[in-house]
Amino acid sequence: MPVVTKGDIQRLDLDTIKLQGTDVSATGLEINRACDVSGRLVAGGSALTVTEALHDGKTILLDTAAGTTATLPAASGSGAKFRFAVSVTATSNSHIIKVANASDFMTGFINVHDQDGTTAAMYKGDGSADDTITMNRTTTGGVIGDLIEIQDIKANLWLVSGRITCVAGSNVADPFSATVS
Predict the structure, then answer these.
(1) In this structure, are residues 133 and 124 in contact, taking their beta carbons and an 8 Å threshold?
(2) In the chain, what percentage of residues exceed pLDDT 90?
(3) C-beta neighbour count of 162 within 10 angstroms
(4) Within a 10 A sphere around the Cβ of 155, how many other Cβ atoms?
(5) Nearest CA to 42 among 72, 99, 84?
(6) Strand 157-166 relative to strand 47-49: parallel, antiparallel, unpaired?
(7) What is the arithmetic mean of pLDDT over 107-128?
(8) 3-state SS string over the chain?
(9) Is pTM beyond 0.70 here?
(10) How far apart are CA 103 and CA 105, in angstroms?
(11) How far, in Å, are 26, 73, 77 from residue 55 at the CA level?
(12) pLDDT at 13 over 80
């Protein structure tokens, strides 16, 4: 087996690397996205435009007391996955996750736990009108620990799964809606 020196590594071109006889077809961006563990948690701030290149496979923190609005990229069937975790309960406004355009919709389920213990519910995005998830910190979640996962499964369609909390003293409501900005 030949010895590889530091100089050899610096001259490597990803297009010529072979692993056990198989060409590497991933781009440098794809390799970084899969292997860079330093940025697994991303601050959402007050507004975040989510991109596949920067956020695929990452956990985006809904982290502002004034609420976070996250706008997804256009759904194309890329398989990109985004996780949204509430790390700060909003005290004003809402935490919102919405699509980028009028052609994209959401399907899938969000389970809502009622802290009063009287009602638990599961809501389904209808795939033809629902394009927004609103966590209003009372009836539709948005408290610390709530989690929503979204995957780009085909052109114009996002698959949603999640669990959120309806706070004590509130009545469970549907977090999905059409065109909330």
Answers:
(1) no
(2) 72
(3) 22
(4) 12
(5) 84
(6) unpaired
(7) 92
(8) CCCCCHHHHHHCCHHHCEECCEECCCCHHHHHHHHCHHHCEEECCCEEECCHHHHCCCEEEECCCCCCEEECCCCECCCCEEEEEECCCCCCCCEEEECCCCCCEEEEEEEEEECCCCCEEEEEEECCCCCEEEECCCCCCCCCCCEEEEEEEEECEEEEEEEEEECCCCCCCCCEECCCC
(9) yes
(10) 7
(11) 17, 10, 16
(12) no
Which tokens sit at 144? Answer: 């610390």
Query: How many residues does the structure list for the chain?
Result: 181
77, with CB counted inside 10 A (0-12, 13-18, 19+), is: exposed
**Tokens 């052609």 — which residue?**
103
Mean pLDDT of the residues in the chain? 88
143-163 residue pLDDT tens:
999 999 999 999 999 999 999
